Every structure is written in structure tokens, then in C-alpha cells.
Amino acid sequence: MSFSSSSTVSRALPRIVGAHTQSITKSATLRIAKLAALPKAAILSKPVSPSVTELPCSSLYHQRRIGPLRSPTSPYQRPPSSNPRRYAHTQASSARPEESTTPVAEMETIATGERLEKLRQLMVENKIDLYIIPSEDAHSSEYIAPCDGRREFISGFSGSAGCAVVSFDKAVVATDGRYFNQAAKQLDNNWTLLKQGIQDVPTWQEWTASESVGGKVVGVDPTLLASSTAKKLAEKIKRSGGKDLVAVSTNLVDSVWGTERPPHPTEPIILLDSTKFAGKDTTTKLTELRAELEKKSGAGFVVSLLDEVAWLFNLRGNDIPYNPVFFSYAIVTNDDAILYVDSTKLNSECKASLEANQVTIKPYDAIFADSKILGAALAASKEASVEDAEGEKDKSLPADGKKFLLSNRTSWALVLALGGEDFVEEVRSPIGDAKAVKNDVELEGMRQCHIRDGVALIQYLAWLEDQLTSGVALDEVEAADKLEALRSVQDHYVGLSFPTISSTGANAAVIHYQPERGSCSPLDVNEIYLCDSGAQYYDGTTDTTRTVHFGTPTDAERKAYTLVLKGNIALDVAVFPKGTTGFALDAFARQFLWSEGLDYRHGTGHGVGSFLNVHEGPIGIGTRKQYAEVSLATGNVTSIEPGYYEDGSYGIRIENMVIVGEVKTTHTFGDKPYLGFEHVTMVPYCRALIDRELLSPREIKWLNDYHVEIVAKTKSLLGDDKVALAWLEKETQPY
């Protein structure tokens, strides 16, 4: 996707985004000058144009409380687990809403009357009748920093999923069934809970539209709402008799929050070694991205997703805990690449790398001013064919019809700054696609970090069984602390990839359970224990779930565990033609539960980054629409994690990480290559929970072979840890 030699935005970038264009017609010049001079508020105050496609505002995956991610230049300190604030948010959920009957621990209810009063006064001053407070940050991040926890601040509801809407006499929070009980406890009487997914309960968009009847104006911070979401909401408001959806440039909740709002993160950024860890240098990545621009005839690519920026430039940060990313944007054209970031976070090594790869560094907030000027240039090119004295088209302007390409998760604010939908095209991100296909260095890193991570988990489960069967009292948080300590001594360890889900008994039935220090449950040898955990290493990201029992499980528990295990094995050994989607593979893992009339209410698998986000799109295994649109490819890394949850009693989940690769088959129907999975997780299954009679001979052979592989790869790394060695031998005995 290059630009024609006669007219390029890439060549215009230094000139347009540095000062102004010298050779545009007088009218175009005046218009660009006016646009460039306008404050951000003016650019972002117009109603949304009704022609952007729909993207759900929020669809959440796992509830996980944030904590800092260690970097080489920032000592790792884990926050107290008693901190009730949760900011985890994702756009990539495959969980189906349900209302849990499991009791929720006592939670604080925050009085919000004064906050709402201040917010409503600001609404009057800004001439809006309803105000939307989404969960998202400006980059549609899965996890958000504390400074972006606006919905929680205004409502008191700390669940990860939800959206708040405030009018002059009403205030609602919409969330799904995972958080009904929690929201009911945390919301004070100023708020009404909209239980999403329940019949006859409106979505927050429907509620907002219905409340806008009579020509009311609805406002939102446009940096927090995807442009496609804004488009559909604007249409709903118009159809319902509302006046407009308007972009309010100053976030009203931030104004209410005032000096109590946590500061914006300023964590340092590090350079990831392209030879040892990244496997591909920035110049190569930029070249490949520009080739995609050529195919799509784009004027440039605007990058707003944080993991995509980090991957593209081989940089890692610590602005959002558990995710080694940093607040940034990027614009890439045929000849130029600009990184918008706080340059004080960059050390000399980072700056040298960016300079060597011909990347210009500009302030983080400059993205909006630059986008306005580039959008104006596109508009000028569309309206007039400018010729110089020799009759040639002005090379400072883009070719007619070219648009800037961006992800469908890009904020409404950026789309407005670029001039609106006439000048942008939402596409599936080529960076996201490239990032999901790991290179050989990244794949080997995934294998090696999972071996080391497996050693830590083997040591942990062995220690845990030894302690509990010896009568030592431990609770869920104390157990998680031990696991973190064991991981922290492994080579290339950076930090956790999400807060450990350490859950016993009935708590294990809560899919998104998060133990709190001082109020969590004690572990019991007579109960199932589920541990879902992962870590960030320089050479990869891990995510493993094991369910164990250190006493005598019930027949029902053993049967349920074995059915889940059979599903895990069935998907692990699946062979499928190239072009198969994760949607098509989902039933492999569910089939044995289905045969008993059972199921689980979450996705079967999600993509995983390479020292990046533990949940990485666009691939995954489940029933989400996206998983039916994107096929698995060689080099993808995904989880396989079927489960079963008996509410109020126990929960079971078994999660392995696998690499997608080509496999040899007797035939190649349709001349297509066939794909399969290579498992990289190296942790034994729980013998006490396996009912051998339910396993087929093929499954037993697979299980024995897997355990032999685990021993071969981890035993020598256990050193003289006699407890771990004895436990490993016991758990991997042949069936």
C-alpha cells in the first residue's frame, strides 16, 4: 500500500504536519489553516455522522484486578490483594452472560450523591441532557490504568464490565450476569442496575435512546467510544426523537474527580532485543505494513491499540499493569513513521533504535493536531486537483480517493480529527494479524518460557499438597503469593500476566473469582482447588489453569473433571484444513460435556501475545462472531481451556497453551495443508480427579505420552527439590 509518485501523504507528512502546505489553492489553504487553528474542543464538538459500522461498546472476558508489571528499570512490587479496585476491561469476551447465585463477599457501597450532583451541574454548563461514562480508555484496552477508572469512580461499581449513563433525574449502570450480585451490593440508591441479557431489560444504548425523547442531547467523551459504536448510537437516538450525540472534549467525570484522580502513568519504556526475543526488527515490520497499505490503497495507517504500537516498534512498557504496553499512538505512511509518546519514558537505547529505523518521535497528545491537518489535506485533495506552474499535481497532497486505514476499535475522537468517515476506512488491523502469527524466535521463546513456568507450577502444586496434607493452614491469597514467588526466580521473569485466580470449593465455580487478602477462603484438602495463573517473561507470555484435589473427590467431581479433560485432549489432537476457524473447532472441546447435558459459559480459547497481552486477538476458539470470521494459521498461539462449574459447590477448568502448525496427513484433500496443535504447557493433570474408566485407549496413550514429555522437559530443572520431584513422579505414573 504505497502512494502514487505524483501525490503522496507520506511525502507531505513532514511538511503538512510540521507547518502548513505552501502550494494549495487559496480556499483549501484557508480551510486547512482554520482547522489547524481550532482547539480540540471545536473539532470534537460536532454530532456524529451516521455512516460508521457497528462495534459493540463493551464485551468483557475476565475480571482481574490490576497490579504493576515489573520492568528491568522499575522494581516489581505487588499491591496488597486487599485493594478492591478493579479496572480490568476487554473487548474480547466469549463469556455468555449469566446470573450467578454464589454469594459475593461483603463489598463497600460508596455514596455517590455528591459526585452525581457535580456531574449534573457540568452537564448543564455543557448543554447536554444525558452523559455516557464507558469503561474503555482511549485505546480500547483490555486492562485500564487507575486514572481511567471513570465508571467505577462515578458509580462505585468496580466490576470490569459495564457502562454508566446519567440524566438529570436518573442514573443507570448496565452490566452482564457475572456482576449482578456485585453491582447490587456496590451501587447506592442513586443508581438503577440494568441487567444485560435479561428479557425485557434494555441495553444501555436502548435506554439512552429512549431517555433522549423530546430533542434531548446526549454527550460522551469521544476518546472513550469507538467511532462505530458512536455511529449506531447516534442512529438510535435520532430514531427515538433525540437531538444529537455530541462529542464533549473535556471529560466531565475527570472534572468531578479532580485532584483525587490517580496520575497518568509515567513508567519507563524498554527496547526488546529483536534477535533474542522479538525475532524481527522494526524496519522489517514497517516494510511489511507498508506492503499491506499498498494492497489496500491506503493513505496511511493510524495505530491506536497499545499492543500493536509496542509490537511494531519492539518496545515494551509498564503503563497498564500486567500488560507490557505504554500510552502511545502511531501513524505509518509509505515513507514516514511517527510514534506519539511521552519521550521522557524513552531511554537512549530506545531513542537510538527509533532513529535507526527512521521513526519520528512526537508528543503523545500531538496525534490529534496532526490528524486534523492530515484530514484537511485529504479533504483538499478530494475537492480540488491542484496544479503547480508546470501543470503537475501538487505532491504535498494525497491521491484522490485515498483514505487513512484504522482499526474498527479506533476512538470516535480520532476519526473526527481525521475529518470523519469520508477520509477513513475501518479495516481488520494488518498489525494485529501479523502480531498473531509468531515468528520462529517468538515460538521458541513460548516453548522455553512455558517449560520454566511449568517448573514453577510443579513446585507450587507439590508444595501446596505437602502443606495442606500436613495440616498447615493456608488461604487463597497466601497460596497465590507462594506461586508468584516461585515464578519470580525463573529466568527472564518480568511479572504476572494477570492476577492469579486462586479459588477453592464454591469459589472455583465463580469463573472470574478474585480472592481478597483478609477476606478470602481457607484452602481445604476436601475441596477442589482451581488455579488460573500466568506470567510475563521477556521471551513469552504464559496462562495455565490446573484444577486439583488433595483429598478424596466425589464421583461427580471426578466425572466432571474427566469430561473436561477429554474435551481438552480432543481439541489438542484435532487435525483440520487450513482456513478452519476457532468457531468451527469449539465443539471439539464441548462434545463430552454436551453428551451429558452439560456445558460452560465462556470461550474455549484465546490468542496470547509474545511478552504482550495475555488476551490477544483476532484469533480465538469459541462462539463469538469474530472467531467465525478469522481462521487459525500456522504460528498462532492460543489457549485450550474447557471447564465445568457447579454453582455453589465447585469449578473445574483445564487450560493449556498450544501453537498452531502444519501436520503431516496421508492425503491432502483440495491441495490444502492441514493444521494441528503443539502443546507447550508442561504441568501434569490431577490423578485424583481422573476417572480412568471414562478414557479411551487413545486418550490414555495421549495422557501417558504427555506426562512423559513433561518429565523429560522439567525434571532436570527441579534440582534437588525433593518434594517437587516426588510429586512429579507420583502424578505422571502411567495409566
From TrEMBL:
<dbReference type="InterPro" id="IPR036005">
    <property type="entry name" value="Creatinase/aminopeptidase-like"/>
</dbReference>
<keyword id="KW-0482">Metalloprotease</keyword>
<dbReference type="InterPro" id="IPR032416">
    <property type="entry name" value="Peptidase_M24_C"/>
</dbReference>
<dbReference type="InterPro" id="IPR000994">
    <property type="entry name" value="Pept_M24"/>
</dbReference>
<dbReference type="Pfam" id="PF01321">
    <property type="entry name" value="Creatinase_N"/>
</dbReference>
<dbReference type="Pfam" id="PF00557">
    <property type="entry name" value="Peptidase_M24"/>
</dbReference>
<dbReference type="GO" id="GO:0006508">
    <property type="term" value="P:proteolysis"/>
</dbReference>
<keyword id="KW-0378">Hydrolase</keyword>
<dbReference type="GO" id="GO:0046872">
    <property type="term" value="F:metal ion binding"/>
</dbReference>
<dbReference type="InterPro" id="IPR000587">
    <property type="entry name" value="Creatinase_N"/>
</dbReference>
<keyword id="KW-0464">Manganese</keyword>
<feature type="domain" description="Peptidase M24">
    <location>
        <begin position="444"/>
        <end position="662"/>
    </location>
</feature>
<protein>
    <recommendedName>
        <fullName>Probable Xaa-Pro aminopeptidase P</fullName>
        <ecNumber>3.4.11.9</ecNumber>
    </recommendedName>
</protein>
<feature type="region of interest" description="Disordered">
    <location>
        <begin position="63"/>
        <end position="104"/>
    </location>
</feature>
<comment type="similarity">
    <text>Belongs to the peptidase M24B family.</text>
</comment>
<keyword id="KW-0645">Protease</keyword>
<dbReference type="Pfam" id="PF16189">
    <property type="entry name" value="Creatinase_N_2"/>
</dbReference>
<dbReference type="Pfam" id="PF16188">
    <property type="entry name" value="Peptidase_M24_C"/>
</dbReference>
<dbReference type="InterPro" id="IPR050422">
    <property type="entry name" value="X-Pro_aminopeptidase_P"/>
</dbReference>
<dbReference type="InterPro" id="IPR033740">
    <property type="entry name" value="Pept_M24B"/>
</dbReference>
<dbReference type="InterPro" id="IPR001131">
    <property type="entry name" value="Peptidase_M24B_aminopep-P_CS"/>
</dbReference>
<feature type="compositionally biased region" description="Polar residues">
    <location>
        <begin position="83"/>
        <end position="94"/>
    </location>
</feature>
<feature type="domain" description="Peptidase M24 C-terminal">
    <location>
        <begin position="673"/>
        <end position="734"/>
    </location>
</feature>
<dbReference type="InterPro" id="IPR029149">
    <property type="entry name" value="Creatin/AminoP/Spt16_N"/>
</dbReference>
<dbReference type="GO" id="GO:0005737">
    <property type="term" value="C:cytoplasm"/>
</dbReference>
<keyword id="KW-0031">Aminopeptidase</keyword>
<feature type="domain" description="Creatinase N-terminal">
    <location>
        <begin position="115"/>
        <end position="249"/>
    </location>
</feature>
<dbReference type="GO" id="GO:0070006">
    <property type="term" value="F:metalloaminopeptidase activity"/>
</dbReference>
<comment type="function">
    <text>Catalyzes the removal of a penultimate prolyl residue from the N-termini of peptides.</text>
</comment>
<keyword id="KW-0479">Metal-binding</keyword>
